[in-house]
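Recap from last week: sequence in, structure out.
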Amino acid sequence: MPDLSHLRQRAADRLPLQFRVLCHQFLLRVIDLEALSIKADVTAFLGQFSGILIMFSLILSAQAVMNSPTGTEESLFFLTTLVTGLITVVTWDNTFPDRRDVLVLAPLPVRPRTLLAAKISASSAVIALAVLSLNALPSLAVSVLLSGGFFRSFAAFWIANLALVLFLYSSVLTLQGFATLLLPRRIFLRISALIQMLAFAYSLSSFFMLPALPIEAMSLPIAHWVVAYTPTFWFYAFCVRLNGALPLSLTWLSDRACLALAISLTGALASLLLCYKRTLRKTVEEPDLVPAARGSHRPLRFGNPLTTVVLLFSLRALTRSRQHRLAFSFYLSIVFAIALGTLKFGLLAPAPHPLTQDFLLNTTLMMSFAVVGLRSVFSLPISLNANWILRITQLRPTPDYTAATRTTLILLGVLPVTVATAILALTFRPLAQVAAHLLVLFLIGCLLAELALIGFYKVPFTCSYLPGKSNVQFLFWGFLVLFVPLAMKFASLEQTVLTSPPRFLCITGFLLAIISALRVFNHHRAKSAAIYFEELPAEVLTTLNLSTR
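Predicted structure tokens:
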């Protein structure tokens, strides 16, 4: 039997050396491995990522066996849209050359087409791994259970599914490419953040807000506007047509899928070729941190000057830095997804309706992801070369910096989620219980902020980060196994507490006592701590074990 590793090596050796080296380097940069992976190892990270998706594929496979395979097949198309859209947006700038690529590779004899092919291959590898991990097992189960025949159903599913992935990926490239060509570099850097957020919102809203429609219901007049402007329905109809089960009244949907795929591929190819020929030099003209617009600005004040400086510095870092905006958008996407699911329930259920345990649980999860996401982004530096400026301007004691960071967490993380919850709760009654829940939720956010400040003795976005400190798979399973059951238990307890004023006073007093104790603890620890700007690895003594007994 031939050695598979030897065959893979021989196949890889046939590719040009420049392409192989660049593809490997760009694959390391598809996702910020220093913030997410174990020991900055791309293999470990991709293995963890695929393991999480395989878990969802097992759940979908069981759903196909126990329930309807047709409904599972449609769910797979929506999940593929969600996963592909999120990965494409997360890897927003990886297909186009950045300043480092131009400065390092421009003097070298590297052709632009080699650079383009390597970048597309690196981004496509992550998307292909995600799509394969998510759809491999459920597609087998669905193809066995459908009546059209295993091979035909399996081939139809994968042809339509890959066409959907190509459409989503090439549509984002087309949008970004022509924005790069038509807009000045400074304006593009500003508009790019807005386009990225809108793409996030579309991927999440299409999954959480759109209803699941059987193929027979798509021809109803009430569903025409939904299916006519939703690409996922187009490619699902294309799959059903390849399987030979699409009604004649819906053939226009599959035709629209083919036309949309052709247009998106043409646009992506044209925009990429033009960008790599015309905009390579423009990438070095503007930094990733976009300067503020010129004009008179009235400075905002939030408490003392130090708090104002830390808050405005954090806010501008999140809005102007591409790396930090991407990292925080991951957590915001989860918050936004939970909010969309809650909003969908509020729109479908008859109003007014009483507070439910699901609403209490969802808002608690929203608060948790917002605070934890903001705290995790605080640890990622912007420019280590500028740390000396912050070091020589440290004129206040460490507890003042801790207090300023606390205020920043509350104003940028806790307060927006509380306001969003108040908007989502407009259809719930009685209003007294809604106000009580908002107070409890705000206290939970303050509690999470105090927990996040334990050991955080630095200015946000200014300290170096040691790679390999986090474990994505460990955090994911820990969240599912430990935090979600605790949040469900707390939501059930809160639902009973809100109907009893004495119990409500007890739980709010308990939360206030814990917050006060943590605040005193953080203040006491900060008195003996120093603001640091460099994370140093632990000193480990390595011995040769040569001593004799």
